């Protein structure tokens, strides 16, 4: 009788082992990719927060610089050049504030109406009239761009925004200092001429990350510290 020899084939086991190995490798690669993506996102958020901190501080410091320049020249502490001289004093509202790198010093003098005011200032202040309270609209209308020296400036036109716009926008809310609140309401802290003795500065910076917008804020008070 002829003997039949049986040979054990390992081709099936090899295929299964290959599939298992590929699965483990794919899981490892996916995990590494997710970890890398998470790390990059954390780095990006940290970088943005450093920039936000500087932009917020800049908004507050620019207003303080205006106040200090006024007092140094013997002018009223709340004199300001707003909308190229259309307004001559700080008041309640929302403002776009930035450095005017074309002006080196603050120049005082008499304006066309005969009033003592700021004729030239290294701080540009423009009243903002947002078309909507939506954060996206505020971002579009207060977006920051880079100038030729990589300094943050305001984007003045839609074309400029599209070509050079950054992922940051900034504006500042200003309102008189007050006390009280609740059911009794609030009372503005005013001088003998019923002018506010101080203002609250509420600086805001909006960051766009893809289709997500985040808003940060910092507050301080500004007064006539010589009184």
Could you write a compact summary of the structure shown?
The chain has three helices and 13 strands. It has 227 residues and is of the alpha+beta class.
Largest sheet composition: 7 strands, antiparallel
State which percent range the strand residues make up: 25-35%
| Cα shape | elongated
**Helix/strand structural class:** alpha+beta
Q: Using DSSP, what is the number of strands?
A: 13
Distance between the termini: 122 Å
Order of helices and strands: HEEEEEEHEEHEEEEE
Unreliable runs? 157-162
Helix content: 25-40%
**What Rg do the Cα atoms give?**
30 Å
How many independent structural domains?
A: 1
The helix count comes to: 3
Walk me through what this model shows:
This protein has 227 residues and is of the alpha+beta class. It has one domain (12-223). Helices cover 34% and strands 34% of the residues. The chain is built from three helices and 13 strands; from the N terminus they run H-E-E-E-E-E-E-H-E-E-H-E-E-E-E-E. It has helices at residues 11-72, 135-142, 158-164, and strands at residues 79-82, 87-89, 93-99, 107-110, 116-120, 123-127, 143-146, 152-154, 165-176, 178-180, 186-188, 198-209, 212-223. Strands 3, 6, 7, 8, 9, 12 and 13 form a seven-stranded antiparallel beta sheet that branches. The chain has a two-stranded antiparallel sheet with strand order 1-2. Strands 4-5 form a two-stranded antiparallel ribbon. Strand 10 and strand 11 (186-188) form a beta hairpin. The chain is elongated and about 95 Å long. Mean pLDDT is 82; it is low at 157-162.
């Amino acid at each position: 009788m002829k003997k039949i020899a049986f040979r054990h084939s390992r081709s099936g086991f090899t295929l299964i082992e290959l599939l298992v190995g590929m699965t483990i490798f794919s899981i490892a690669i996916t995990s590494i990719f997710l970890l890398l993506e998470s790390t990059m996102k954390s780095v990006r958020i940290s970088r943005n927060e450093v920039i936000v901190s500087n932009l917020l501080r800049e908004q507050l410091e620019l207003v303080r610089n205006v106040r200090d320049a006024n007092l140094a020249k013997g002018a009223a502490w709340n004199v300001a050049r707003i909308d190229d001289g259309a307004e001559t004093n700080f008041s309640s509202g929302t403002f776009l504030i930035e450095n005017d790198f074309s002006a080196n010093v603050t120049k005082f003098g008499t304006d066309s109406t005969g009033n003592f005011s700021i004729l030239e200032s290294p701080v540009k202040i423009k009243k903002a009239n947002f078309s909507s309270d939506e954060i996206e609209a505020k971002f579009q209308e207060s977006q920051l761009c880079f100038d030729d020296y990589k300094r943050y400036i305001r984007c003045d036109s839609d074309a400029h925004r599209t070509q050079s716009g950054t992922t940051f926008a900034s504006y500042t809310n200003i309102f008189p200092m007050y006390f009280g609140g609740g059911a009794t309401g609030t009372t503005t802290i005013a001088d003998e001429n019923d002018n506010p003795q101080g203002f609250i500065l509420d600086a805001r910076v909006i960051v766009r990350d893809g289709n997500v917008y985040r808003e940060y804020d910092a507050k301080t008070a500004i007064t006539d510290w010589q009184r």
